[in-house]
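Summary: Need help interpreting a holo structure output

Steps to reproduce:
1. Submit the protein chain below together with the SMILES for pyridoxal-5'-phosphate.
2. Request a joint structure prediction with the ligand placed.
3. Inspect the structure token block that comes back.

Expected: a single structure record containing both the chain and the bound molecule.
Actual: see attached output.

Input attached:
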Amino acid sequence: MILNRPHAAARAARFFTEKFPGTAMYAVKANPSPDLIRILWAEGVTHYDVASIGEVRMVREVLPEAELCFMHPVKTKSAIREAYQQHGVRTFSLDTMEELAKVVEATDSAQDLRLLVRMRVSSEHSELSLASKFGVDLADAKPLLQATRQHCDALGICFHVGSQAMTPFAYVQALERVRAAIAEAAVTVDIIDVGGGFPSIYPDLDPPAMEDYFAQIHRHFEAMPISYSAELWAEPGRALCAEYSSLIVKVEKRRGDELYINDGAYGALFDAAHVAWRFPVVALEDDLTQPLAEFSFYGPTCDDADFMKGPFMLPEDIQAGDYIEIGMLGAYGAAMATRFNGFGATLGFIVEDEPMASLYRGDRPDPRESDNVVSLR
Ligand SMILES: *Cc1c(COP(=O)(O)O)cnc(C)c1O
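--- attached output ---
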């Protein structure tokens, strides 16, 4: 059972539209729910980072007037053509000469393109790396930037510092590399896109205030050797939707400190299993006096890999038949679920209570002064 909190997603969207010193587009892959996308739109999120023709079609159908940016650096020609001709997409990212040629050909050398060259940057400050798969190296950026400049109306540079960047310095470091690339290539740049990676809060992952990220990014953007009218963009995924959803699971069986629950690696808990992400949990019971103990989870499928190490802190007397709420699952939670082994059918409900943690409520102690522990309600 998924609990959705429209007010929490709306609050995150307002935070970005009001405080980010540029255009914050939503990275749809974090949670492609049409309900969520409508909430973000209503709060002023006008740009959407889409990565596949499926996402292009879906967002276009939900939001006919949204600005769609096709930010996957490897696309098929047919996807580029359909996006350009049928869905009004003008913004594309690329990281090779081959991809540039594809975009030029599939759009019949269109004159109204905004092309963003994706640069490889470090993921060292982030919990999930996005450093190895995409992005042109600084050493190879000059010819690509110069060639791309010939084929676009607006030239941009984008990057992704990795997901859940735990310090604003990740962006500062990446922007330094962008600055070097611009200086080397001596091209006019119209858009700097700092990508995603903005954090949310999880147990043991309590980031600095989001305002610190925005301030550092703004300061370094302002000092860039770019045109006076250049735009600053970002592509937050996680930060806009992590607080949107939580999951209610049932304990089907207990074996020592292992709980067999009815969702898992093939459901909404992919990250808990595959990258050992620790989501906050609370037992849904009235007796809050029980001491907590460490538990791990098994999901419902027959696969040994359907295992979530945790540790998840729950009352030590928890047993079969009890229910647990797993929080902060709006990003990369529901979006990952499969129907493997016949499991995975989940009902969604709208609730009005607060998410287990929030970066946007204004009541969070400054983590630089706290002991780095997430408080659970
Ligand atoms: C995944 C992704 C995002 C969103 O990343 P978050 O860490 O969720 O903010 C943004 N841009 C691109 C290109 C991505 O691949």
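--- end attachment ---

Reviewer comment: The pocket of pyridoxal-5'-phosphate is lined by residues 27, 29-30, 49, 71, 160, 163, 195-198, 235-239, 331 (CB under 6 Å). The longest helix spans residues 169-185.
Status: needs-info
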